[in-house]
Amino acid sequence: MTTDSRKIRLIMDLRNAGVTDTRVLAAIEKIPREVFVEEAFLDQAYANQALPIHCGQTISQPFIVGLMTQALELTDRHKVLEVGTGSGYQASILSRLVRRVYTVERHRDLLTTAEKRFAALNLHNLTTLCGDGYKGWPAQAPFDRILVTAAARLVPPDLVAQLSDEGGIMVLPVGDAAGLHQEVIRVRKEGTQFKSERLFPVRFVPLVEGVPKDKGPERKQT
Ligand code: SAH
User: Does the CB atom of residue 95 touch ligand 1 within 6 A?
Assistant: First the structure.
């Protein structure tokens, strides 16, 4: 099967599975997932499954990327924070849908690879930071939307604080580190009021506080 026909089949599967937002589907169709997977898994780039990347992490399943992106209710005016850049795939999808994406990753190696991919794909509305995304990115706050792509045990308070109080939305997996009981939560912030909804069960790698030893936080603008 050709890449194009695999891609078309994936888009149809996503639509059947509830990803109905046409802007989100168009972004998934446009961003080449094969650029973000490791060479050994190239033949599975358009399979609807998570795949291993370096540093013991994973690139999320396309279905989950679609549902979480859709849950953010994005417009092209939004400024969005992503926590957990990983391969850079989810950030690239966001970059096609919103004004500006800020993405934070604690592993320098993963971030460097992701930055090269953004440049190769001519995505210029992304800004990256190597650091602890549990603390968000205070210097750039507030954000209209926040997407966390690693599972937190509880909703991180700093991220709630950095969410716009004029209808800000945060989507994040919450649950145990082993991934046995995790679900995606959507938090809406209106002034000092919060509303939170449980969306669907997932299995993500854990959100780990701090950065790996010997690699201090470092900032890079792209
Ligand atoms: N969005 C990614 C999937 C990433 S997997 C993609 O599209 O490929 C989760 C990522 O979160 C991993 O790369 C992991 O290193 C990162 N992560 C975990 N805890 C973090 C933290 N506190 N700050 C920043 N990144 C974190």
Answer: no
Q: Which residues are part of the catalytic machinery? A: 60
Condensed to tens digits (0 to 9), the pLDDT of residues 39-71 reads 999 999 999 999 999 999 999 999 999 999 999
Q: Which of 116, 145, 124, 109 is nearest to 218 (CA)?
A: 109
Q: Is the pLDDT of residue 132 over 70?
A: yes
CA dist 74 and 83 (Å) reads 17
Ligand 1 center to residue 110 CA distance, Å?
9
Check the CA dihedral 201-41-88-210 and report its sign. positive
Å from CA of 144 to ligand 1 middle: 20
Check if 151 has its Cβ closer than 6 Å to any atom of ligand 1: no
pTM: 0.95
Best of 64, 96, 208, 219 for a ligand 1 pocket test (most atoms within 8 Å of beta carbon): 208
Find out whether the beta carbon of 171 lies less than 6 Å from any atom of ligand 1.
no
Percent of the chain whose predicted confidence (pLDDT) is above 90: 89
pLDDT of residue 214: 58
pLDDT over 50 at 221, yes or no:
no
Handedness of CA 118, 120, 121, 122 (dihedral sign): positive
So where are the chain's domains? 3-221
Å from CA of 1 to ligand 1 middle: 31
Q: Give me 145's structure tokens.
A: 């939307």
Q: Which CATH superfamily is domain 3-221 in?
A: Vaccinia Virus protein VP39 (3.40.50.150)
